[in-house]
What we know:
Oligomer: single chain
Largest sheet: 4 strands, parallel
Shape: globular
CATH architecture of the largest domain: 3-Layer(aba) Sandwich
Amino acid sequence: MAVLPAATKHQAKLLVIACGALAREMVWLQKSNLETNSLWQHMELQCLDAELHNRPKSIAAKLRDKIEQNRHRFDNIFIGYADCGTGGEIDRLLEEEGMQGVERLPGAHCYAFYAGQQRFAELAERELGTFYLTDFLVEHFERLVIKGLKLDRYPELREQFFAHYKKLVYLSQRQDQHLQRAARDAADFLNLDFVHHHCGYGELGTALETQILKLK
């Protein structure tokens, strides 16, 4: 009688459905951690359009579609969004029947999980009237802010939109002098005082690591 080969152990897979604004950072975290933890190779990343940053009410529906398309393929799904201006819609989605066990990034937005919840709360209290940028938003400032708000066509809107802001705070992920200069230029364009805080990847890194450890 033929002897059947031993069954291979099933390896759980993790799908991360994330904002396109986090794609570069998540890919970097995966690559940088692979050398010390091979479980990171079992993470697959699918991103929604970063333009949803300007249409947050559409995020939850897009996430529902992605989850339903992929649930049968993955043992674990993680949402690479904080609340991100959805007014609790992502949390309500994840509370629905059939969505239990799916988690999201902590906090209200990317500024909070990059800086850390407590640190961001302190920044927000200390620096009222603040406009925040991350690496992604600095790199795409012209497209998302200048053109997205039509400031290139209607310069007078700049004063209307930013009349109550005093500072531009750049929460950087990378130590990059080019990005720092670009962030300072953005502050000058908006006529705001410039402040730079280097945060690294903050709670984005720890949240992903927690999901990876579940694959053991």
